[in-house]
Amino acid sequence: MKLSTFEVKTSLGSAQRIGLVLFPPGSDPNTQAPTLVDLNAAYAWMLLEAGQKPCPQRWADFLFPADMRAFLELGEPALDAAREVEQRFLAVLKNSQPEDLWGGAGQRLAFARHEVTLKTPVPNPKMMRDFLSFEVHTANGFKRRNEPIPDAWYKMPVYYKGNPHTLIGHDEPVMWPSYTRIFDYELELACIIGKQGKNITAEKAADYIVGYAIMNDFSARDIQKHEMMCRLGPAKGKDFCTAVGPWLVTADEIKNPRDLRMIARINGEVWSDGNAGTSHWTFEQMIEHVSKEEWIYPGDILGSGTVGFGCGLELDRWPQAGDTLELEITGLGILRNQILQP
């Protein structure tokens, strides 16, 4: 199941909704435009049609708020209801176009891709952490400083805490920070936490992952270098923007998150090509480490860190203003952003 946060235009301005991303059966998600089903409106319509529950809109408002984090906090009951909508609308859309589907009180039930603006799947996570889990990427970074990987890196999955307020989604522009001369991309896999927990063992950690998405951890390399010379950060070298998207793919759709091809294209040219399974640390180990005497919450985002040779720093090639960045990961789609000069 693919879950999204999107905006639609109304007579009162833009409205944020959470929805299902549906593709025609057998189609290629990387070339076929999806349909976005408004979960709230679709569920209310289903209940009204079935006539099984009173006040169908109130049930829909409870299970499908406009905020993805609030939805994930409801846990399995809300996810199960979303699966009901998915099964119903896979059948409905075989014989109908999105613009023809209307519910009660003049509500649109579904939208064509060009009618909506995709946002990052979880726009307001409580916390975003990004790890350094790929040995090749780590080794390349220390090699530039003529240093070996420190022994401590092999003893715990280290991470920094990013800025959850500067997340963007698919096709949203990323602004080149006014204070940097060296802009970079980073090809990463992200997992999204689905339930609250503390002191979680690696053996049980998979139960806390609701799904996965693509992450582009944009970097201001010159600023990052100066910050980390002081043994602190990164901060301004990273916090200006991070892209996560294009949607959240639930964990049950990803057969093996340790075998996902990861590709980065700059203006259509492949710069990076790796695999998620080459990471030294797994998401389960990351969750165990993070949750030691510390709570994790639904909607929290964990980034894998950059796959080997997954950024310009390792390639000594640098994206420029005006470039289009496309990150693709098996089963997760394509995350595209253009760099804009402020």
How does the SSE layout of this entry go?
Elements lengths: L1 E9 L2 E10 L12 E4 H12 L5 H8 L4 H6 L2 H17 L17 E3 L4 E3 L8 E4 L3 H10 L14 E3 L5 E2 L5 E2 L7 E2 L2 E7 L8 H4 L3 E8 L2 E2 H9 L12 E9 L10 E6 L2 E7 L7 H8 L10 E3 L8 H4 L8 E6 L3 E8 L2
Parallel strand pairs: 6-17, 8-14, 9-19
Antiparallel strand pairs: 1-2, 1-5, 1-14, 2-3, 3-4, 6-7, 10-13, 11-12, 11-17, 12-14, 15-16, 15-18, 18-19
Helix pairs in contact: 1-2, 1-4
Can you tell me about this structure?
The protein has 342 residues and is α+β, with helices and mostly antiparallel strands. It folds into 2 domains: 118 residues, Fumarylacetoacetase, N-terminal domain (SH3 type barrels); 213 residues, Alpha-Beta Complex (Fumarylacetoacetate hydrolase, domain 2). Helices cover 23% and strands 29% of the residues. The chain has 9 helices and 19 strands. Strands 1, 2, 3, 4, 5, 6, 7, 8, 11, 12, 14 and 17 form a 12-stranded mixed sheet that branches. α1 packs across α4. The longest helix is centred in the N-terminal third of the chain and has 17 residues. It is globular, with a radius of gyration of 20 Å. The model has no long low-confidence stretch (mean pLDDT 95).
Distance between the termini: 37 Å
According to CATH, the fold-level topology of the largest domain is Fumarylacetoacetate hydrolase, domain 2
What is the architecture of the largest domain at the second tier of CATH? Alpha-Beta Complex
User: Low-confidence stretches at least 5 residues in length (pLDDT < 50)?
Assistant: none
What is the top-level CATH class of the largest domain? Alpha Beta
